[in-house]
Each structure stands twice: as structure tokens, then as C-alpha cells.
Amino acid sequence: MSGVSRNIAALAAAGLCLVLPSCGQKDTHEKIMGDTLDLMEQFATALEQARDNESARQAAREIEQLVEEFDEIAARSDAVGKPTPEVEQDLAKKFAERRTKILGRISSATTKARSLDEGSLLESLAHLGKSWSAIP
Questions:
Q1: Number of C-alpha atoms within 13 angstroms, CB side, residue 80?
Q2: C-beta of residue 50 within 8 angstroms of C-beta of residue 59
Q3: Can you tell me whether residue 80 is helix, strand or coil?
Q4: Phi, psi of 18, rounded to the nearest 5 degrees
Q5: Distance (Å, whole) CA 83 – CA 91
Q6: Residue 5's pLDDT is what?
Q7: Torsion angle, CA of 11/17/18/20, rounded to 10 degrees?
Q8: Higher pLDDT, 20 or 120
Q9: pTM of the predicted model, to two decimals?
Q10: How far is the C-alpha of 26 from the C-alpha of 37, rounded, in Å?
């Protein structure tokens, strides 16, 4: 095999590894939970920045960008399947404190953001809610 052919073959193999999930790191329930919490933190941060109508519109744009990532998490979660009761219990223990803190931030920020009554933010919250609820 010539040098050019080897280079092409190597590039093709590398390209396949980028495309095929089996070549990459395997998804686990723990990884998906961690990634979900990372997204929830991004959501909380965006929402906390909504202090007036202008910042609420900016928060809405940031939240809309997260919707696709939440959809991807839902698809990954579906692909991995439902965790066993033991795994579910382990995940609950491992992530309980972080999850509780994030949900507290989201709850507080949502109450403040809704009081602004900025239409684009309210629409973004509804849009994200649909994606979020699709995560098992």
C-alpha cells in the first residue's frame, strides 16, 4: 500500500471513529446524569441573569441554545435504556446533593424570571420544559 493510500485509509478510519459511537467512549447512566446536571447548571446560570426585560431576552436566547442539548441527552438516555434499581439508587446517592442545589437555583430563578413577564423568556422556558420532560 502506498503512502497516499495509507494516509487516506487512516483518515477514513479516523472519520469513522468520529461518526460511530462504538469507537468513542461508551455512554453510561452515570455519564448521562453528570452531563444532564451540567446542562441544568448552564440553564440555572442563564436564568439567574434575567434581571430586566433586556437580560431576560438574552437569557431566552441562551436557553434556546440548550434545548438541542437536552434533546441529545434524552436520545442518549433512551439508547442506554432504563437503569437497574441498584444503578438508579447509586445515582441518586451520588448526585443527590448537586441535583438538589441546582434545582433550588432553577426554582428561585424561575420565580424571578416569570415575574418579568418577558414573552421570549416564557416561550423559551416552555420549549426547554418539553425537552427536559423527555429525559427519562
A1: 21
A2: yes
A3: helix
A4: -75, -30
A5: 9
A6: 41
A7: 140
A8: 120
A9: 0.76
A10: 18
Question: How far apart (Å, rounded) are the C-alpha atoms in residues 112 and 127?
Answer: 18
Q: What share of the chain is helix, strand, coil (3-state, %, to 5)?
A: 85, 0, 15
C-alpha cell at 30: 452515570
Fill in the amino acid letter for 130: K
Cell of 2: 502506498
Q: Which three cell numbers stand for residue 13?
A: 478510519
Average pLDDT for residues 6-28, to the nearest whole number?
51
pLDDT at 18: 43
Residue whose C-alpha is closest to residue 56's, from 131, 109, 3, 126: 109
Q: Give the pLDDT band of residue 61 (cuts 50, 70, 90).
A: very high
